[in-house]
Amino acid sequence: MESAVRVCVTGAAGQIGYSLLPLICTGRVFGAGKKVHLRLLDIAPMEEVLKGVLLEIEDGAYPLVASIQISSDPRVAFKDADFVIFLGGFPRKPGMERRELLQINGKIFKEQGEALNEVANADVKCLVVANPANTNCLILLKNAPRLSAQNFSCLTRLDHNRALAQLAIKSSVTVDQVKNVIIWGNHSTTQYPDVNHGTIGAKPIREVINDNDYLNGPFIERVQKRGGEVLAQRKNSSVMSAANAVADHIITWIQGTPEGEWTSMGVYSNGEYDTPKDLVFSFPVRCKDGKFEIVTGLTIDELSLIHI
Q: Is 66 helix (H, G, I), strand (E, B) or coil?
């Protein structure tokens, strides 16, 4: 049995947490031989719900769960943490301006960044899921100067997975045959799903799907707006697929990308591909030994430059 890992999930009483926690507890995320010390963080008004989540984890009798702790204090939950998954944030409500949402979440992630800076493991890996994920991630890392930018990423794996799935459906193959698509930018409707470097069954995507009108139009729009499509059908936001994307993101971050492949992650920009510096932006990345690096040297065509 490998040594245990200390994992904190914020917003743990929410819906994505409810779908994600079984994936963690059964070993899908951190490995079948890895014991997990779970810290579940949420705001004080959610304490009773959080206690219910704890009871369900206990009743699951998961052999890999070494301990469970619930808290509303990030300094308690983040103490010596190895991984923190930030699901919790203030949701946008009807009539709320984006500026208002940014102000509220900015305060939340400033406080959590300061707590990370004080008490978290120096090698802690932080994955921000709560929207606006890119902005929240930037605020978090700016308020944790003791930690490297390598410690922080935000989730665009859901968008990446959506792109893979749409291309697999269009070409009548299984999703594992689709490689090296890219999500550029924000986890929002401004993102750019890029197929120009990708393959399906080892052949270029544009060769397999010989339909540039589709790839340059409806495909991009559907991936960009897929969250809204799910919301319209379910009357609720993406939950199961989001939890699965979180698991995929962490697995890749820990285990690495296969040779010759990459994934999409929102990471700190140093101006790669002429993007603005000092923001969190989704790039193609390779992972190895628990670290990520942005894939450089890709040729970007004029259409892609406009989108990026």
A: strand
- Residue 293 host element (H or E): strand 291-294
DSSP letters along 39-52, please?
EEE--GGGHHHHHH
* Each residue's pLDDT tens digit, 49-71: 999 999 999 999 999 999 999 99
pLDDT tens digits, 157-175: 999 999 999 999 999 999 9
pTM of full prediction above 0.70: yes
Residue with tokens 């995507």: 205
Tell me how far the alpha carbon of residue 284 is from its chain's centroid.
14
Instruction: Give the pair of three-digit tokens for residue 142.
Output: 């700016």
- Residue from 37, 160, 187, 249 carrying the catalytic annotation: 187
Residue 197 known to be catalytic: no
The DSSP symbol for 178 reads E
Alpha helices in 202-270 (DSSP H): 205-208, 212-216, 218-224, 226-234, 240-255
In angstroms, what CA-CA distances link 268 with 107, 192, 202? 20, 17, 30
CB half-sphere exposure, 216, CA atoms < 13 A: 11
Classify burial at 75, counting beta carbons within 10 Å of its beta carbon; exposed 0-12, middle 13-18, buried 19 or more.
middle
What CA dihedral angle connects 110, 113, 119 and 123, to 10 degrees? 180
